[in-house]
UniProtKB/TrEMBL annotation:
Protein name: Cytochrome bc1 complex cytochrome c subunit
Catalytic activity of the protein: a quinol + 2 Fe(III)-[cytochrome c](out) = a quinone + 2 Fe(II)-[cytochrome c](out) + 2 H(+)(out)
Primary site of residence: membrane
Enzyme Commission number(s) of this protein: 7.1.1.8
Signal peptide: 1-39
The organism of origin for this protein: Mycetocola zhujimingii
Keywords annotated in UniProt: Cell membrane, Electron transport, Heme, Iron, Lyase, Membrane, Metal-binding, Repeat, Respiratory chain, Signal, Translocase, Transmembrane, Transmembrane helix, Transport
Binding residues annotated for heme c 2, in chain numbering: C164, C167, H168
Ranges where the Cytochrome c domain occurs: 57-136, 151-229
Compartment(s) of residence: Cell membrane
GO molecular function: heme binding; iron ion binding; lyase activity; quinol-cytochrome-c reductase activity
Gene Ontology cellular component annotations, sorted alphabetically: plasma membrane
Amino acid sequence: MFRTHTSSPRKGRNTGRRSPLATTALIAAGLLFTGGAYAAFSTTTASAETSHAATAATVEEGKKLFDANCASCHGLALEGTDAAPSLIGVGAASVDFQVGTGRMPLQQQGPQAPQKPPQFTEEQTLALAKYVATTGPGPGIPDEDLLHGDGDAANGAELFRINCAMCHNVAGAGGALTEGKYAPPLTGVDPVYIYEAMVTGPQNMPVFNDANLTPEDKRDIITALKFTEENSTVGGNALGSLGPVAEGLFIWIFGLGTIVALTVWITARSN
C-alpha cells in the first residue's frame, strides 16, 4: 500500500500580494505630485501673463505720453522732423537720460539742451523709455550692480583722465566747449545718468560702447567720480575745481586788488 503524504505550506512564504495601504499610499503620492506640478505650472503661467500684461500697459502708457508731449518734434512714428532727430533705435537708456535729467522736452532751441527739473515722474519716464525701445534695438537702462560705486577707483580715475578729462575737467567740474556748448559738471549726478551718457553720447559727447569701455570700466569711472565727490580736497578751497584758470583769476582779483588797495591807502596817509 502506498501512503499519501500531504505537505503543509511553508511558513513565511511570499504570496505576492500587496498591502492595500501601499496601493493607497502610491495613489496619494501620485495625486500629490500631479497637483503640485499643476499648481506650479499655473502660478508660473499666471505670473508670466501678469508681467506681459503689465509691460504692454506700460508701453501703451508710454505711447500716449509720447504722442502728447514728443510727437510734435520727433514725429508720430518717431521718424524725426526738421526740429528733432529720429528716435528709432536710440534705446531706453537715451530716453531715460534725456527725460530723467529734464533736458527733454526742450524748452527752446539753443547750442545744447540744458539740464532742468524733470517734467515727468520716474514711472512716466520709464514708460516713455520702454515705448521707444520697442521701435528698434538700442542701449538699455544699466543694471543696478554697475551703479553702486564699488569698483576700482584707481582704474576708473585713469580711464577718466584718458577719455573724459579734456572736456569735463580732471575733477569732473565741467568745462566750456566751442560755439556756446559746454561739458556739464559731474558732481551730484545720479550714477545711472553717468552710465547712460557714456553709452548714448548725448549732446557733443562721444559714444563709449562696450568695445571702447567695458561695463566694468564704466563702473570703475563712476566709482572714481563718486570717490572724488565724497572726499574733500586736501589742498584747501577747491575754487570750483576749475584748475589754473580759476586760481589765476583768484590771484588777480584778490591778490592784485589787495596790493592796489594797500597802495592807495599808503598814498592817502602820506598826503
